[in-house]
Structure prediction request, 747 residues.
Amino acid sequence: MTIQTSNLGFPRLGRKREWKKAIEGYWANKYDLTTLNQQLTDLHKENLLLQKNYNLSSVPVGDFSLYDHILDTSLLFNIIPERFQGREVNDDLLFDIARGNKEHVASALIKWFNTNYHYIVPEWDKAEPKLNHNVLLERFNYAQSLNVDAHPVIVGPITFVALSKGGHQSFEEKVNTLLPLYKEVLQSLVDAGAPYIQIDEPILVTDDSKDYETITQAAYDYFADAGLSDHLVIQTYFERVNLQFLNGLPVKGLGLDFVHDHGFNLQQIKDGVLDRNKVLYAGIIDGRNVWAADIEAKKSLIETLQNYTNDLVIQPSSSLLHVPVSLDDETLDTSIAEGLSFATEKLDELDALKRLFNDNDDRKYNELKTRYARFQEQSFKNLDYDFEKVRTSRQSPFKERKKAQDERLNLPDLPTTTIGSFPQSQEVRKYRADWKNNRITDAAYEAFLKNEIARWIKIQEDIGLDVFVHGEFERNDMVEFFGEKLQGFLVTKFGWVQSYGSRAVKPPVIYGDVKWTEPLTVKETLYAQSLTDKPVKGMLTGPVTILNWSFERVDLPREEVQDQIALAINEEVLALEEAGIQIIQVDEPALREGLPLRSEYHEAYLEKAVRSFKLATSSVADATQIHTHMCYSQFGQIIHAIYDLDADVISIETSRSHGDLIQDFEDITYDLGIGLGVYDIHSPRIPTEAEITEAIHRALQEIDRSLFWVNPDCGLKTRKEDEVKEALSVLVNSVEKLRKSTNSAAV
Ligand code: GLN
Ligand code: ZN
Prediction:
């Protein structure tokens, strides 16, 4: 039996983030829409031809987008947010919905399942679904004109509706409204010669998948009645499915993830659940990590799968949107580079397997096999860790610590502070880039940093904040910065991955044992502290977040890697304490997003997260105050774990949730320090005193005043200097008035 290869989606960004630059150039009015579209078409072409080079049996189309593929689908079906309705449906409308404009706020961004990609949430309020310009067909025709064997990709109706919000209709009603529109699009693609259409239904791998079965059955029956069943492949990823159910759907093929399924998809196949006549689209190459495949193991997986289907297509486990494009442009140490595999290298792995099975051509296969073995032979497990010798809980309970801290810090009622970063101005970014590219000396760079720190210490003094920060000017990114300095991490040059819209992140790669070798943040923090009598907070990223926002090694259990990072952060915490820093903040903004998709894994995940955080932070003296920060407010089921972190103060986002937080914190009587984000830093808008005062009042009804801090929602690095100064002054003025009014009331 011959096997075929396919792909689910390719990174949009381009090898050197050309996509981002093209789009941002248009936003900055550097050229018009025609020019932008020309640039993007060129990029799309490059992506298609690049994939074709790897001999793929079919290349996906519909993954490429101007911003986000879910937003594309919303526009295709005219699910336009009410406030943007009445305008022509075109690219400018698309950008406005995604980014907001002068009159209207943008649509919400939400994390795409458990990845770091964010999609634009479709809004149903007053939506009038109909078919707009069929961009998908256009892109498919374009691929054909390039002689690329392609298949269209579209998010399926069940997942689309499940990820959307608003509207008075029921779930079923929404799906039913969309079905005729889907049918028309699918039919147009079939007519245009599409060999099959990949319908992404990742919602079917979640805890809730059972609830969707009836409507899923009805939807795909509808397509079957329209004569489409031989053309549709239901694609899932990120977790296991209920194969019994999927097997009963009238479609040509099923796409399953065999990497992130905890072994359950394979087990169901072995149990004989799959109908042999369905095409099995087997996701066997990890689409989310950057390690070269164990090609021998993949070969035997294929052999196993062949026993259970007549028709096998091998492909990555998910879209390659989640990995960088290519290793070609990197200049990495070859001994490590050999072990890596970005998007194009993954396609090469598929090609090697296809040649092996179909043509008895084992040249590439053997090459990859040798390379993999060579990489495995190197030992990246060199270090011994004594986890036992580091504390996993503070010396005294919170009440006692608080006493010691209050005596030492002597802070006023309702202390004010910020979350860490100050504006990363053009100048800051330029200095850092110049320094990285050796255009300026270390001394010149350091002098600039000192100057910037000093300037912002003065600004904080003038505004009248109580606890200062140094501003994080030396950091490009809160994870990459630590990746660059800790042993065991590798930082790539072009390893960018789209996070949302034009925003990309460059996760460091953890390849070896993590170790702290020298202070990472002490110099800047101490310098800031030397300029003021107010306490300056040390600013670190926590182990859970560092791991979550890195490409992690797979040769060790995850929790062990996380604990190694925790020990490294613990060293830095102690170095800061030793240097006299009295407050240390360990940020964990990724703690919640790392939560596994299936709830059966939640408890174990949270337990390990708490342990790692405590390893990182428990060794300090009672009088040293540990803060943590998370940029969201819906804690819900994880609130107990948050409490278990035992941080002296937690700062969280609340301004956009209008007090929702209070409920979660009330439910467990949260009696540790808590800093409330009283204004939204994502908007350039300056908050009013009334708003801030009201937010504080509302919170104080639930939270003990002696535990309460006042701060912005998150770091201020994306804001302009003037905005920051103005907003923080409003914050401090509001608090000062509150202090006065309460004092006079007490008299
Ligand atoms: N300390 C970081 C900052 O202020 C926190 C960022 C975050 O929570 N994402 O930028
Ligand atoms: Zn934040």
Notes: Residues 419, 589, 629, 631, 714-715 surround zinc ion (ligand 2) (CB under 6 Å). The domain at 414-746 is CATH 3.20.20.210 (TIM Barrel). The mean pLDDT is 95.
